[in-house]
Task: structure prediction
Amino acid sequence: MIESRLVNLPESLASRTGYLLARTARQLSERMDRALEPFDLRPRHYAVLAVLASVGSLSQQRLTEILQIDRTTMVAVVDELEKIGYVERRRDPADRRAYRVDLTPEGQAAHGELRGVVDATQASFFSRLSKQDRADLQRVLRRFLCDDERE
Amino acid sequence: MIESRLVNLPESLASRTGYLLARTARQLSERMDRALEPFDLRPRHYAVLAVLASVGSLSQQRLTEILQIDRTTMVAVVDELEKIGYVERRRDPADRRAYRVDLTPEGQAAHGELRGVVDATQASFFSRLSKQDRADLQRVLRRFLCDDERE
DNA sequence: TATTGTTATACTCTATAACTATA
DNA sequence: TATAGTTATAGAGTATAACAATA
Result:
């Protein structure tokens, strides 16, 4: 499926917040994929860089918990980031089963550039909304995901 | 990956509306999958039933346009709905290349029951939000997807 | 020539199971 | 026994290409 010009969504779907959410998320995902394609990365690679940049070195296990990515998938993501020199694995001296995954200087620089791309893509994607609507969306989603320990 | 108790999302991700959107959509998708599992259906099957119930008989081509599902995927979805007797294909006399896909009486009954399941699942999923927040989310997403003809 | 529906196929994503090394 | 990381593998999901029937 290519793209997404909005065809007259029937009321039975337009009135379902869940359907709107799924559909919006899918459009955004396609946009982000395209925006990161020139860098041969996917959004999940950027997410790992962003977490490491803000939290510091972490085990793969901690990364899977924070990002909700399966550990077998995380192996591949870290492999790919390591191969292009953006992260490095070092054995944790305190627990030699685990790695400490950390950004390299190249990874820090890449994160800075990619952050610009990701932010610009997101801004462009949501630009059709008013400032107030964007703020509402951010507030509601954040409250939904963060003010809560349920399930 | 199993589930999703929210682990202290770093600010660098919590402040990105796009990331929050993607993550929320993924949680909802898992919930909907589980809710429809007892019926051996996926959300896309429900979406087809809902569109047919509200719009009436449509060609597969029109269904793909409305739901943004690839036409090769739509073949399988309609196959499965036809096999369990919820829809039927009839050649369109006005264009014999196309089918008219329509709900059977069994499909109409199933749609009614499934609508209850889907609505209850969605209500439960969003129940942690205030009424106002739910209304804001619905309003913003709908405006985003529907008040617009861009891309 | 273009379009609807179909099949075959390939590619990605993700999850499961089993392994290793450490704890 | 349990956990961190890994590998192999299998199952979905989705996309591409090619085809038949029809326009």
Chain A touches chain B through 67 residues (CB under 8 Å). Helices of chain A lie at 11-14, 17-36, 43-55, 60-67, 71-83, 105-125, 131-146. The radius of gyration of chain A is 18 Å.
